[in-house]
């Protein structure tokens, strides 16, 4: 796994051993960032269920202003720290807690890009979206990017609506924005 574009292009990222963490494949990551192209520069990024930090670090490489990475697994936290240090990134903040606890305790923070990539088939993405909705944590021009299994469905929750989806093998990417 590597950073595929921007300032840190080509930097290799460490991954968590085993099958508990499922990093977003480069092909899917490339597709996501092609959709987000206009939204990245200067963005505040929230990466829930961060895993290796892959998505947040890619956003920083492409010009995001700062990223907050949320991860509860001690093993994954260690890998994220190593990836941040290896790349020399200074505008990434790792928060070592459960994603839902973070959302419940930090209602004042608002972001331009929010990545949600939880373990599949557990209803965690929908739970995170509901918590992001009240109070709303997404800027008016922001995007929530959700990764699920292809056979999972998401509902829209006010003030968000599903604007676009994409399927890549057994993975589905959802793009949500605030209703106009």
TrEMBL record:
Gene3D superfamilies linked:
Vaccinia Virus protein VP39
Which controlled-vocabulary keywords does the entry list?
A: Methyltransferase, Transferase
- Looking at the UniProt entry, the stretches that span the membrane are none
Biological process annotations from GO: rRNA methylation
* InterPro entries referenced in this protein's UniProt entry, alphabetically: DNA_methylase_N6_adenine_CS, RNA_MeTrfase_RsmD, SAM-dependent_MTases_sf
The terms under GO molecular function for this entry are: methyltransferase activity; nucleic acid binding
Q: Which PANTHER family match?
A: METHYLTRANSFERASE
| Protein's recorded name | RNA methyltransferase, RsmD family
Lineage of producing organism: Bacteria, Bacillati, Bacillota, Clostridia, Eubacteriales
